[in-house]
Amino acid sequence: MREYKTQTKEIITTTTFSTPLGEMFAAASKKGIVMLTFFTPFNIEAKIQTLKNTLDADVIPVNGKIFEVLKIQLNEYFNKKRTTFEIPLQLVGSPFQVKCWKELLNIPYGKTISYKEQAIKIENEKAHRAVANANAQNMIAILVPCHRVISSDGKLSGYNGGVEKKEFLLKLEKMINKTIFRQYDIRGIVNEDLTAKNSKLIGYFLGLTIKEKIKTTPYIVVGYDVRTHSNMLFEALISGLNFSGCKVLNIGLVATGVNYFASFQEFLLNNETIKPNASIMITGSHNAKKYNGFKITINNEPFFGDELLALYERILKNQNIEIPLNLDFIEIDAKKLYVDYMVNQFSHLKDFKIPFALDCGNGVANTVLCEILDKLNLNYQGIHLTPDGEFPNHHPDPTNEKNLEDLKTLLKDDCNLGFAYDGDADRIAVLTQKYNIKGDMLALLFSKTMKNPVIIGEVTYSQNIFDELNHDTKTIMDKTGYSNLRLKLKELNADLAAEVSGHIFFNDRYYGFDDAIYATFRVIELLYKGIDLDFELDKLPKVYTSSNIELEVEEKNKFLIIKKVEEKLTLIQRGFPLIKNILKIDGLRINFEYGWALIRASNTNAVIMTKYEATSYATAMSYKKAVENILNEVINEINNTTN
Question: Alpha carbon of 100 to those of 137, 170, 548: distances in Å?
């Protein structure tokens, strides 16, 4: 219906235009934009009528200057070149609606809040349903970002343009996804969470961070694993590093241990001796082939935890920087240094004839491993040796028993030792025909060749291992996680740290980082020194130990769950197993009369992890049932409160 201008009425001009989300309809008064909505005739007619009635206005289709500005800014927004809008708005609605909409303008680009949080911000906590209704009546999509409000459970909930449009807008704004900044490294799905664009930004702002710590021009060792997208990420990352003013030392396709090793060495460049200030390993580690990421050290210490979150926040505020492609680097041969070092360190093993097998899982272990073995003339047979980013034979995670099946077929007759590696060869699995020798068992075995060692363990160790270690060593229980253990090893100048999952850190005769290739030769050395692995492990008292059990929870609740479980354990009911004590180093390790239970929040995923050990399977299961009852009770209480 055509509307005509009168002398006494306000004039509202309108236009339509195309966007990546389809046709949009805009309206403006002399004060600013009053409506921006997705084009559906019924929806528009109702909103126009509201504007006409509220403003006592006539409506005419005129493509004025304000719409040209709007289209330019929206085009920049959809192309990720704009995070805020600089255009006048007129909010037309009830006082409560306008109050809600003004609060929407305070939600930063790339962030979300819940309806309840929005209600609290307008000082009316109980009005979250009214807030949701007000947001549903929002007249100005995108500019007044009601799409940034989601349900408390993380679900997208309703949206005037349709939930699929809300999902599109949130993904568009999450150019840097916070979830890839994990506790110990940066890791995500390539081309979804981790892209060339944001890898440039990571490189640039990480480079600035390193420069601030170093105070001079930093030299940064960069290596990468065999994943099909590692080279793309390498080019993007070093473009950012170069843009920040850092110097890149390219060591190419390597194992993570070689990357760490290189950061401890000195290199002669243009008649100048330089020592790297930092290292970055591009790797997806043991994750599926679609993942990749960055493991970072500065001054030979892990860059992790709060430092990674600070890097994320820094990037989030500056996402629109254009970083040119710059592939400048200095190529160095760290692999040769590493191979020569290993051959020298383990020269006493030369011609040792006890047979063993290895499965490199088509990861990067064999960028150096077989060359070292051959130079020492050791008696091995290997499978899946060729690096291949498609991982055609099995997933590169040796903590999963099914990925060890091929290796087990080689353990027969006189071959009673096998090694397997994860994708970047910083994690090891050691097998005999009888045992899958976990990291805590390895710590015990290695301690037998050390004099008065100090050993760093972690909260998932078997109590039997701790008890045995404490007979002859000083053993310290610490948090799990390879960055935590590496720092604790350095802090205490301990001899060895080991994670049950297979990250082994030698400060004894080595540099204190986790390197599965180096650990391989230390295991072979045990046999060389006459230690019978099976015999030593047979001496341990027999217990049942469960695997890690994961329970998915909301990310925001996982630490609260641990706190609430701890509170309930102080008010424990009759019939619950007798608690001797509770260790709170990393979650809750509950020591019972005949075993223990562990409840901890994962540092890398939205899960609660539990583990159980006891003198018998039945006792361990009774502990499991008792703890899970409390755990489920707490989770239900939190969910009911949230809802």
Answer: 10, 20, 45
